[in-house]
Amino acid sequence: MRQLKQKQNIASTKKGAESKNDNKKKRNCLYFCSLVSFGVVFCFTGFAALVGLLVLKEDDENITTMMQASTFSPSNIPPPTLKKPLDIVFVTNEIESHLGKIYSNNNFLSPLRDENSHQSKALEWILYNDPLRKKDFWNRFLLANFFLCFKGFKWKNHSFWLSGADECTWYGIHCQLRNGIKEIVEINLDSNRLEGTLPFEIGLFPFLETLSLAQNPNLKGSIPSSMGMLENIQEIDLWSNDLTGTLPSTIGQLGDLKFLSLDQNQLQGSLPLQIGNMTSLEDLTLAGNSFEGIIPTDISRLKQINRLWLSDNLFTGYFPLAFFDLPKLAYLYLDGNQFHGQIPSHFSDNIVDIRVGKNLFSGCLPLELFQIAKLEILYLNENQFSCELFPEIYNAPSLRELDLDFNLFYGTIPEFSGNSSLVRISFSSNQLSSSIPKNITNLKTLEVLSLNNNSFTGFIPNSIANLTKLQYLRLSENQLTGNIPIELGNLTNLHQLTLHNNKIRGTIPVCNTSSISYITADCKGKNAKVKCSCCMMCQ
Predict the structure, then answer these.
(1) Nearest-CA neighbor of 360 among 427, 407, 290?
(2) What radius of gyration, in Å, describes the C-alpha atoms of the chain?
(3) Is residue 173 part of a domain?
(4) E strand or H helix at 432, and its extent?
């Protein structure tokens, strides 16, 4: 029994030991499984957190960029979803390469090296703030540079500029397809409050045909020589600005240019000889500047010229005679300079309007001048012409305005022809004498008759009253005698009547004319020979 109990105790002890071992194994397994489960959960949670942080960071960067882009969107158009960022190095190198075409030739460092330059800021917009992120970014860079250079946020109209819209829809920008690509062909920002100077980059628009920035009084500085790189340009309108400096010689490289308007600026210096190379030019307008010197004879090479407007400058010397005979010349404005010499006898058959007043031209007028069939306006006033007037001065069939004021013409006024279409005759301040022709009634269309400050004698013809369209009648400072024709009261369209400093007498008969605004006569004092109740000036 003792041995049996011992065996049972031993068996029980073994069984207990085995049970303990089994429990230990179970605990170890559970512990291991717990560790594995915890590790899996920890890794998954960490990964999820990392992904979340990356997503949040990317969203934050997009939001920041969109906010930055919105500050460059004056049109307040919501910026589109930003595309993949452009290659910074590639874009910078490409732009710097393009800019090198103009800056390396002028000994300038690249403006991209100056972080405060408008070029550098335009590059920054292209790289980081342009919502469109176009691969063909060059035109957008040029326009961004243009916008920043001229303080675009102050413009009268800057719709769509520096927004996510296609640059061809920006205000004042027009594009056309060139080889399947939309290219900028016109920039028109007239009267749009531009401020600043013309950027050198203006010459880098390869397909530009029209550049119109007129009537921006705060557009200052000089015309950059890079303008000569616009090989497709046909029209440049920069009139009524505040441009200074000289006209660059590179302007002569614009062989396709048809219209050049630089009037009403502060440009100066001589015209470059290369101006004769612009053989497509049809309209050259330089009036109201301070250009000086002699006109280059090569200007006569402009065979397509229709209008030349050089008024109110400081040009001197002889004007090239060959220019008067250019076949397509219709409008010639040389007034307000210091040209001298004589008027040639050969003119273009297409000439319509000649204005050479306020110069130093002299001699007699050529008869051929009054045989031009299309001539409508002839202003020769304030020169030194000296000769007797001939009857043919009325012969030009289309002549409407003839101004010979302030010269040295002498003799009598030729009889007026019956088929005249003259609207204006101004012979004031010459040395004309004798009487006023009685057949003045032939001038049925006359609106202005200025004969003051001469030596006319005799009576005022009653027939003047038949000129029912007459608005200005100036007969003062002569030696006219007799009574004032009462028939002048029939001139119901008369605005101005000057009769002072004569020897006439009577009563002014036009005081009740509703259109009258200015009358002068010898009506001063109690013993005045002329009675006038409505005169603005009594001598």
Answers:
(1) 407
(2) 43
(3) no
(4) strand 431-434
Domain-embedded: residue 357: no
**Residue 7 scores a pLDDT above 90:** no
The CATH number given to whatever domain includes residue 425 is 3.80.10.10
- pLDDT per residue over 460-514, tens digit each? 999 999 999 999 999 999 999 999 999 999 999 999 999 999 999 999 999 988 8
Q: Contact 392/415 with Cβ under 8 angstroms?
A: no
N residues, the chain: 539
- Domain with 520, as residue range(s), is 364-539
CA pair distance 163, 70, nearest whole angstrom: 8
DSSP 8-class letter at 128: I
CA distance 32 to 411: 132
Measured CA to CA, the distance from residue 533 to residue 539 in angstroms comes to 14
Q: Report if residue 428 sits inside a domain.
A: yes
Kindly report each contact of residues 124-128 with a partner whose C-beta sits within 8 Å and lies 24 or more positions away, as own/partner. Answer: 125/72, 125/162, 126/86, 126/91, 126/95, 127/85, 127/86, 127/88, 127/91, 127/92, 128/65, 128/68, 128/85
Sign of CA dihedral 280, 283, 287, 293: positive
In this structure, the strands spanning 173-178 and 181-188 are antiparallel
Residue position matching structure tokens 């190095």: 89
Give the span between the Cα atoms of 68 and 70, in whole angstroms.
5
Residue 85 placed within a domain: no
CA angle, residues 161, 165, 168, in degrees to nearest 5: 75
Task: Report the alpha-carbon distance of residue 532 to residue 118 in Å, rounded.
Answer: 68
Pairwise CA distance, residues 331 & 311, whole Å? 12
Beta bridge partners of 186: 174, 210
Domains of the chain: total: 1
User: C-alpha distances in angstroms, 66 versus 53, 77, 115, 138, 274?
Assistant: 20, 12, 22, 22, 50
Predicted confidence at residue 97, as pLDDT, reads: 83
Amino acid at residue number 24: K
Question: Which tokens sit at 119?
Answer: 């070029």
- The CA distances from residue 88 to 101, 125, 184, 420, in Å, are 21, 12, 25, 74
